[in-house]
Amino acid sequence: MTTSIDRTPPAVTLRIGGEKLTSGSGGTHGHVNPATGQVDADIPLAGASEVDQAVQTAHAAFDGWRKTPPAERRRLLMRLADLLDENAAEFARRGTLDNGTPISVSGGFVPLSAEWTRYYAGWADKTSGDLTASFGNGGELGYTLPQPYGVIGIIITWNGPLISLAMKVPAALAAGNTVVVKPSELTPFSGELFADLVEQAGFPAGVVNLLPGAPEAGAALVEHPLVQKVTFTGGPATARKILHACAEQMKPVVLELGGKSANLVFEDADLTAACQHATFMSLGTLSGQGCALPTRMLVARAVYDQVVATVAEVAKNIPIGDPFDPTIISGPVVNEAALERILGMIERAKLDGARLVTGGARLEGPLADGYYLEPTVFADVDPQSELAQTEVFGPVLAITPFDTEEEAVAIANATPYGLSAYVQTNDLKRAHRLAEELEAGEVLVNGAANLAVHRPFGGVGISGVGKEGGRAGIEEFLRTKAVGIA
Ligand code: NAD
């Protein structure tokens, strides 16, 4: 199907204090369209000097912003949320240009991002401290002041360029911080429009600065002494480098990293719904490129063969193709390196004895130039094998049988990750029991949606530290000062 959507990438700039720079000292990045394998834009990249300029600018803007009445911060964020909604079609287009996410999916991230923005707008004038008082001899009045940190360094990855901004920037601003944001160089287009709308909403210049940049720019941001806290979304290898860099200055961090989330399917579940959910989530909508996806399906032996067969059938019928086609559910993976990495994991899974049920190859024919992979399902996956232990970040689902609930929990908890866990059951007691026992930052039962803003999201183990969402999400951007008055 052909569509009339314009596929021309927009120009990208560096945003410092309301100024737009068309080039940076970090050189340029040739943006590759993953649907065609062709370079479609040259992206200017910030280097250390622009990072320094942006941080100095955010630092200078901090005093005014922290003293801006909270209700005014709320009003500006509400205006930004409305602008996100008003620009939904363009954000969907840019999301698809950024990384090949199908337009039906990138479009869905826009209202979600507006909701994250509105939710934290609502917190801007609702943070409060505690009061303790004891009177009489030696008494004192004590209270706490929740205060913003100052400049927050925000580093995000490429798989959800708009929602990642919305999960970090509004909460940081609502709390009274200013920000310097470094989106992934792979996905610069959504951030450009976000910066335009921040300006249009009327935020004071310097409160939000946004710099497309390579890893070197991220490192410069982390190391900058005026950056008071870093919040990062990406992979564990980068997170370790960031932690090392932050150790020197004792700088606090939030790390939102990867996962290998278990999805426990019991015989009493609605199996049709469970198979649809598992397959579309892990293989379909983001081609497996999501941190919290249920990529490890653990299935009760009694329904194992039935579930494997149903999942394979659903997987074979996922519409894959041109991400600008609104009927498409699954697009390419982000780049050639990702494609090669995923194919390597597929080959090693076979050598490890997993049973390939469907998929396993790059797509040929009219899609051969893009980075398309067949939705791939492995059954009988050894819980200790690479496929069960390591995030693929591609459309590969691992299925393993279990005999008892205890065994299922033991397998689920036996990876170094702990981002999300999923349970499919109609036994209420079991659901609550497993919510307690599963080692993960969240447990989602019977298809509860990911990324609900009122719920704190964030992992344990090598899935990270810190939360986004809920009250915990704004508290990450406030530090507590205690006051005592004799
Ligand atoms: P990555 O870690 O390679 O890069 C992420 C960002 O870090 C990019 O902007 C990059 O330029 C920057 N960067 C790289 N090196 C840096 C350094 N030394 N200092 C500072 N910044 C640096 O990301 P990736 O591995 O391609 O991203 C995919 C990962 O992100 C997956 O593991 C996925 O699970 C995870 N992820 C997590 C969440 C979450 O909320 N938990 C959401 C989306 C993706």
Number of strands: 20
- At CATH's second level, what is the architecture of the largest domain? 3-Layer(aba) Sandwich
Shape: globular
Beta strand %: 15-25%
* Individual helix count: 15
Q: Could you say what the CATH topology of the largest domain is called? A: Aldehyde Dehydrogenase, Chain A, domain 1
Largest sheet: 7 strands, mixed
Distance between the termini: 74 Å
CATH first level of the largest domain: which class?
Alpha Beta
CATH superfamily of the largest domain: Aldehyde Dehydrogenase, Chain A, domain 1
Bound molecules: nicotinamide-adenine-dinucleotide
**Strand line-up across the major sheet:** 14-15-16-13-12-17-18
State the helical fraction.
25-40%
Mean pLDDT, to the nearest integer, reads: 97
Sheet/helix structural class: alpha/beta
Radius of gyration: 23 Å
What's the structural domain tally? Answer: 2
As residue ranges, the low-confidence spans are none
Organism: Cryptosporangium aurantiacum
GO molecular function, one term: oxidoreductase activity, acting on the aldehyde or oxo group of donors, NAD or NADP as acceptor
Protein name: Aldehyde dehydrogenase (NAD+)
Family: Belongs to the aldehyde dehydrogenase family.
How does this structure look, described?
The chain is an alpha/beta fold and 486 residues long. It folds into two domains: 14-257 and 464-485, Aldehyde Dehydrogenase, Chain A, domain 1 (3-Layer(aba) Sandwich); 262-452, Aldehyde Dehydrogenase, Chain A, domain 2, CATH 3.40.309.10. Helices cover 39% and strands 20% of the residues. It has 15 helices and 20 strands. It has a seven-stranded mixed sheet, sandwiched between helices. Strand 1 and strand 2 form a beta hairpin. Helix 2 runs antiparallel to helix 4 and helix 2 (70-86) crosses helix 6 (189-201). The model has no long low-confidence stretch (mean pLDDT 97). Bound molecules: nicotinamide-adenine-dinucleotide (NAD). Nicotinamide-adenine-dinucleotide is lined by residues 155-157, 159-160, 182, 184-185, 214-215, 218-219, 222, 233-235, 238, 241-242, 256-259, 291, 391, 393, 419, 464.
